[in-house]
Amino acid sequence: MLNFVICDDNLNILDKFSKILDNIFIKYGYDAKIGLKTDNVDELLEYIDENKTDVLILDINLKSNKSGLEIASIVREKNKDTYFIFTTAHLEYAMMAYKFKTFDYLAKPVTSDRLEETVVRLFNDINGLPKRYIKIDNKKTIIDENEILFIKRDGMKLIFHTKNRDYETYSSFNKIQDSLPSNFVRAHKSFIVNINNIVNLDPVGNIVYFGDNSNCDIGPKYKKDLMEEVKKNGIFK
């Protein structure tokens, strides 16, 4: 699920943008949410420090001790993958905004059609980056691959277990495995694990452990290859 954050010092604009975004998510079936909408810079920075922010819609000319550009600089240092969408009534700031690898720049007043066009392009861009995001079904459910701990086969159903929640879909286990990047390794006939998110591995008890206290089994058929991949990637010495 993509997390959108909105920051503007105009409360009417905050409400307007959040309503437009909610309508877009419903209209296109996007797996996204608005994690925060705020006019408070301190609240924004605290939230971003504690929560993954995929998309930040930010007013450049905030009435605060930090401008939108200063905030963008702080956010970019923490997360190089955050999508920035800047808004302002002052066109002269547009060129300054683009140095932060801005996805789009919206001149106020922003219409619902203009914001929709930007959000649709953003999701299309994400769909074109399979090594960063994974589309798991026909409902445009998009998951950041770094958030996935493991994938479990349960009959005809696949369960994507992430750091925050589970996603279920009906698909071929082998087909999913073939579409995944190399850090996803088969550990068992019913499990594919993201080796980047392994926190411990018990080769005697044949169990892989993850940061949320979840675990999965290691099958004897897949143990050798899994151990080699883990060692090759320097996850455990």
List the helices and strands and how they pair.
Blueprint: E1 2-7, H1 11-28, E2 32-38, H2 41-50, E3 55-59, H3 68-78, E4 83-88, H4 94-97, E5 104-107, H5 112-127, E6 133-135, E7 142-144, E8 148-154, E9 157-162, E10 166-170, H6 173-179, E11 184-188, E12 191-194, E13 198-202, E14 207-210, E15 215-217, H7 220-232
Parallel strand pairs: 1-2, 1-3, 3-4, 4-5
Antiparallel strand pairs: 6-7, 8-9, 8-12, 9-10, 11-12, 13-14, 14-15
Helix pairs in contact: 1-5
Largest beta sheet: what is the strand line-up? 2-1-3-4-5
Radius of gyration, whole Å:
20 Å
CATH topology of the largest domain: Rossmann fold
Which geometry do the CA atoms define?
Answer: elongated
CATH superfamily of the largest domain: Response regulator
Q: Using the 3D structure, state the CATH architecture of the largest domain.
A: 3-Layer(aba) Sandwich
Helix content: 25-40%
Low-pLDDT runs: none
Number of helices: 7
Order of helices and strands: EHEHEHEHEHEEEEEHEEEEEH
Q: On the 0-100 scale, what is the average pLDDT?
A: 85
Going by helix content, strand content and strand pairing, the class is alpha/beta
